């Protein structure tokens, strides 16, 4: 197969998956950008503009073309999926067949560890390898402090600190980002500046508001660009204002592997890590080995993921409502015990 497709990730495994379509005279290609009803596809003969009628086509998909019509989408190896922004009970695929998810965290503002944990859960769930990229280190007075904070949440993931403006750390980052790489993060975190440095493609960059560190959407659609040196391709995504979890149970357990490891030593298998005796998680918090904030974040994301799953599962939805009613009933009862002075409420 042409080296142009190999640059975009084509290999013998994709060739085997495509074999039935090849037998039918169809052409392989990879989607590099999607618009309404049309997509840009790279093929061995070069880029083409193809039409499609299906709704599940995403940047990164390998497809079978019949002329200038998208006939089929090959099964995905990995997929970065968030809850649909509309709140509907289905997921939105941000990028397909990704090898590395680069979670972008800026060093210029107070680190939002909760958002980093959320993005890492999505990254682990995708099946790709997460890498946390600390950007704008040239504008940070204490990179070591930020690095120490992010290390507490980036369990099992590499962390690389860079300044795209000064060029610091870019070689180390290039070594960590190979294959198909997707950048995820809020607007203004430095994604487009970083993408320009990694690809050599001049992407538009807009200023960030000093008052809150946020910026406008520089990238308005997901598109794929070759990395420098033929290392792979980069998918730059628009800034994500909201990142809802969707069927991310495995990703949450990977992102919070430290808590799961501690929970294995709890006295009770169903320990809620509250006031139960013999709770290893609470003991670690009391000893200063685990931040209480991290357990709170874990619980919050677990609940969110359960409710997202309940949107499409009536039985689970009923169980969650019963559990919530039981909790509130127990809470009320503690204020209505016989002999309790109601004036102390």
Task: Describe the structure in your own words.
- Keywords: Cytoplasm, GTP-binding, Hydrolase, Metal-binding, Nucleotide-binding, Ribosome biogenesis, RNA-binding, rRNA-binding, Zinc.
- Belongs to the TRAFAC class YlqF/YawG GTPase family. RsgA subfamily.
- The chain is an alpha/beta fold and 345 residues long.
- The protein has 3 domains: 3-73, Beta Barrel (OB fold (Dihydrolipoamide Acetyltransferase, E2P)); 79-236, P-loop containing nucleotide triphosphate hydrolases (Rossmann fold), CATH 3.40.50.300; 256-333, Ribonucleotide Reductase Protein R1, domain 1, CATH 1.10.40.50.
- Helices cover 34% and strands 22% of the residues.
- It is built from 11 helices and 13 strands.
- The chain has helices at residues 3-7, 12-23, 113-126, 143-151, 170-176, 191-199, 249-255, 257-263, 280-286, 292-310, 314-333; strands spanning 27-35, 38-43, 46-51, 62-66, 69-73, 79-83, 91-96, 100-106, 129-135, 158-161, 179-184, 223-226, 232-236.
- It has a 6-stranded mixed beta sheet, sandwiched between helices. The protein has a 5-stranded antiparallel beta sheet with strand order 3-2-1-4-5. A two-stranded antiparallel ribbon has the order 6-7.
- Helix 3 (113-126) crosses helix 7 (249-255) and helix 7 (249-255) crosses helix 8 (257-263).
- It is globular.
- The termini are far apart.
- The model is unreliable at 205-220 and 340-345 (pLDDT under 50).
């Amino acid at each position: 197969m042409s080296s142009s497709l190999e640059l975009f990730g084509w290999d013998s495994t994709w060739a085997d998956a495509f074999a039935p379509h090849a037998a039918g005279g169809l052409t392989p290609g990879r989607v590099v950008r999607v618009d309404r009803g049309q997509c840009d596809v790279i093929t061995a003969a070069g880029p083409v503009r193809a039409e499609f009628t299906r709704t599940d086509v995403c940047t990164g998909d390998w497809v079978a073309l019949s002329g200038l019509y998208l006939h089929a989408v090959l099964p995905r190896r990995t997929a970065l999926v968030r809850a649909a922004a509309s709140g509907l009970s289905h997921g939105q695929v941000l990028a397909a067949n990704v090898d590395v998810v680069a979670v972008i965290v800026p060093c210029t503002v107070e680190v939002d560890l909760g958002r980093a944990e959320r993005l890492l859960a999505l990254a682990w769930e995708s099946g790709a390898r997460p890498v946390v990229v600390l950007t704008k280190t040239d504008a940070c007075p204490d990179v070591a402090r930020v690095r120490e904070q992010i290390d507490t949440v980036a369990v099992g993931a590499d962390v690389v600190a860079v300044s795209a403006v000064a060029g610091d750390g870019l070689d180390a980052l290039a070594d960590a980002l190979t294959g198909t790489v997707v950048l995820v993060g809020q607007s203004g975190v430095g994604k487009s500046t970083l993408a320009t440095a990694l690809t050599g493609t001049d992407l538009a960059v807009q200023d960030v508001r000093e008052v809150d560190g946020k910026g406008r959407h520089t990238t308005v659609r997901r598109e794929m660009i070759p990395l420098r040196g033929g290392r792979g391709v980069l998918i730059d995504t628009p800034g994500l204002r909201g990142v809802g979890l969707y069927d991310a149970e495995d990703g949450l357990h990977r992102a919070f592997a430290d808590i799961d490891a501690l929970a294995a030593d709890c006295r009770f298998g169903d320990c809620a890590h509250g006031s139960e005796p013999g709770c290893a998680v609470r003991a670690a918090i009391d000893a200063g080995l685990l931040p209480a904030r991290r357990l709170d974040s874990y619980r919050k994301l677990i609940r969110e993921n359960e409710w997202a799953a309940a949107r499409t599962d009536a039985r689970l939805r009923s169980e969650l409502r019963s559990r919530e009613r039981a909790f509130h009933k127990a809470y009320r009862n503690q204020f209505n015990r016989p002999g309790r002075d109601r004036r102390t409420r």
